[in-house]
Structure formats: C-alpha cells, structure tokens
Amino acid sequence: MITAQAVGSGLMTQEGYDRLRQELESLMTTGRQKVAERLRDARADGGDPAENGELMNALDERALLDRRISALERRLASARVVAAVTDGTAGVGTRVRLRTSGGIVEYELVGAGEADPAGGRLSIESPVGQAIAGRRAGETVEVETPRRMRHLELLSVEPAGSGARVRQAA
Q1: Last residue of a domain, which of 82, 102, 118?
Q2: Among candidate residues 142, 136, 48, the one with its CA nearest the CA of residue 97
C-alpha cells in the first residue's frame, strides 16, 4: 500500500477496490449466466438471425457486459490501494469538514474513480481535493474551481470510517 497523501490516477480506497471486485465477480457469474440464458432463449426462436430482434438485443447486451468486465479488470489491475492517513493530514481515506461561503460541508476524500460529490465522496484529484491534500485542520486555502475562486477553511480531518455525508450547516 502507498500513503494517502500521494495524488495520481488509479488511487482508491480499500472500500472502493472491494466494491469494484464484487461488481466484477457478479458480472462474471450472474451477469454472464443471465445473458447466456437470453441468448439461448432468443436462438431457440429460430428463423433468420438478422430478423430476430431479441437475439440482436441479447448480443448487444453481451457486448456491453464484456466491455464493462474489461473496463473493471483494467481499473483493478492499475489500482493503487492507499492506506488511510493517520497523521492528521487530509488525503485519500480521510473525512474532512470544510467551511465554505455556503456553510459547512463534509466529504470523504477518495480516488477519482470513486468520486460522488452528491454522496459525500470527493476526488483527491478535483481542484478542492488537490488544494486540501496534505493540509491539517485549522488551515485555510484558496482554490480556483471551474466556477469561481473559493476560500475554504479545513475544520477537521479524521479517518473515514463509516463514510462521509454531505452536510450543509446554516
């Protein structure tokens, strides 16, 4: 494992890695079985394959499934699982509370492939993630985002634990 302060592509939390492994396993077993059944049923209808809409749909579904499986295999092969930072600095695998002009927000810092800002998961590679990486509670930063310059105060940094949620305080 590498430290969570590093910024670069392929970084992810252990939780994110495990989630992708589970998805891959499910697609390779259950997903492939369902598509094989659809193909078998569609071929049983007989007739000209070019005129069998169900067969064409099943073949398209198999191609999409195979592409998703390949994409997951590539992501997992290049993934670098990071160890959570325990020195009080912000990095992948930490939960941060920030004071913004709009109030207080809380995020878990994650790798780019795991980001979901609405779900409280902010990419370490985003402008805000890069600006606060390696910083400690009490520090303030200015960061230029696509919309505007933002002034942020880092209120707290702690290990992510149970997952962060976006919270807006008045």
Answers
A1: 82
A2: 136
Predicted confidence (pLDDT) per residue in 13-40, tens digit: 888 899 999 999 999 999 999 999 999 9
C-alpha to C-alpha distance for 114 and 27, rounded to whole angstroms:
19
Q: Which residue has the tokens 């303030």?
A: 140
Residue 166 amino acid letter: V
Torsion of CA 43, 49, 51, 52, to 10 degrees: 20
| Torsion angle (degrees, nearest 10) of CA 24, 26, 29, 34 | -120
Rounded to the nearest 5°, which phi and psi values hold at 45? Answer: -65, -20
What are the strands, taking DSSP E only, across the chain? 2-3, 11-12, 80-83, 94-100, 103-110, 121-123, 140-144, 149-159
The CATH number of the domain where 60 resides is what? 1.10.287.180
- State residue 84's pLDDT score: 73
